[in-house]
Amino acid sequence: MTTLLLGEDDSKSINSKPIRLPARLQHFLDQMLESNASKRPKNMLVVAQRLQNMQRTPKETIGRCVKSLSLGLLIGSFPYPLLLFHLLVASIPFLNTTLGVLTSIVAQFFLAVWPLIIIMQLIMIIVFLFTPRQRLIASSIIATLVFLLLAFSSGWLPFAAIFSSSFSSNLNLTLARGTLYSMKALTGL
Fold first, then answer.
1. CB 50, CB 117: distance < 8 Å
2. 100/91 Cα distance (integer angstroms)
3. Which helix (H) or strand (E) holds 106?
């Protein structure tokens, strides 16, 4: 077994010291050679995964965790950053004239399909919770949704501003300006 793991044949040399394996690897080998079948790994896929995990450096492990957390934050926060971006665009006159119509349409679309987005997020949470290597993504989505719920309910985020009459009048004003600019461009004024 040592020859297979280390690539060195220690059976031919009589004077060589016994090769010392890392403790985690030795423990895993002892577990694989256990006489009780219920204590051994279930199949070769489990063995391969455990060996790969032993080869990973802490930097790679942290990188995978950060990637999973980031993906969960992205899924959990969607489409709320787009709605906040629209509020930012609506508050700056220059941006409102150039991007106002587009962001208004996108905001209205996401508000219309918001229940479907919530349902899809909940489905993704359930799927990721029951997928062994994706549980961190699910927990990140849950944490993001809980934070957003607290933020909206306590007034930290201006969710009510999206539904306010100023938003609707801003949308109508932006659409009217866009129509006026289009008519001027067509008539050459």
1. no
2. 10
3. helix 93-112
- What CA–CA distance (Å, rounded) separates 110 from 99? 17
Q: Which two tokens stand for residue 100?
A: 């106002």
Using left for φ > 0, alpha for ψ between -120 and 50, and beta otherwise, residue 56 falls in beta
Radius of gyration of the chain from Cα atoms?
29
Q: Is the dihedral of CA 157, 159, 164, 170 positive or negative?
A: positive
- Tell me the average pLDDT of the chain: 78
ω before 132 within 30° of 0 (cis)?
A: no
Q: Report, in this order, helix, strand and coil percent for the chain, each rounded to 5.
A: 80, 0, 20
Measured distance CA(151)–CA(157) in Å, rounded = 6
**How many whole angstroms separate alpha carbon 97 and alpha carbon 103?**
11
CA distance 73 to 136: 11
SS3 125: helix
Closest CA to 162 of 99, 105, 86: 86
Question: Model confidence over 46-93: pLDDT tens digits?
Answer: 888 888 878 778 888 888 889 999 999 999 988 888 877 888 888 888
Where are the domains positioned within the chain? 1-55, 58-187
Q: What's the CA angle centered on 127, arms 124 and 132, to 5 degrees? A: 130
